[in-house]
């Protein structure tokens, strides 16, 4: 059984599908700032690497880099 996802992290994951690029970008950025606490977001962030908006793609890349980094 996996651990439940924090409600805040889940809300941010849900916002990754928003119709507005700024919302998707900001949600990815917020997940990045949460670091390993947001590891459950990785599958939802991966499709954003192909987003039509370059700012969303960039923030998704930064978030994934941070979330996949080994714990310090």
Topology:
Blueprint: H1 7-15, H2 21-34, H3 42-45, H4 54-68
Helix pairs in contact: 1-2, 2-4
Tell me what you see in this structure.
This protein has 72 residues and is mostly helical. It has 4 helices and no strands. α1 (7-15) runs antiparallel to α2 and α2 runs parallel beside α4 (54-68). The radius of gyration is 11 Å and the shape is globular.
Describe the structure concisely.
With 72 residues, the protein is mostly helical.
SS summary, helix count = 4
Q: What is the CATH class?
A: Mainly Alpha
Question: Largest sheet, described in full?
Answer: none
CATH-defined fold name:
Leucine-rich Repeat Variant
N→C terminal distance: 26 Å
- Percentage of residues in helical conformation: 55-70%
Shape, principal axes of CA atoms: globular
Can you give the mean pLDDT?
93
Number of strands: 0
Q: What is the domain tally?
A: 1
Task: Provide the CATH architecture.
Answer: Alpha Horseshoe
In terms of DSSP E residues, the strand content is: under 5%
Radius of gyration: 11 Å
Please write the string of helix (H) and strand (E) elements. HHHH
Oligomeric state: single chain
Q: Which residues sit in consecutive blocks of at least 5 with pLDDT less than 50? A: none
What attributes characterize this protein structure?
single chain; 72 residues; mainly alpha; Leucine-rich Repeat Variant; 4 helices; 58% helix
């Amino acid at each position: 059984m996996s651990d439940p996802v924090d409600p805040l992290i889940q809300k941010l994951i849900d916002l990754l599908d928003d119709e507005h690029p700024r919302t998707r970008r900001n949600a990815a950025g917020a997940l990045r700032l949460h670091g390993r606490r947001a590891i459950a977001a990785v599958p939802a962030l991966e499709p954003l690497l192909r987003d039509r908006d370059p700012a969303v793609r960039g923030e998704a890349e930064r978030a994934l880099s941070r979330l996949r980094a080994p714990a310090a």
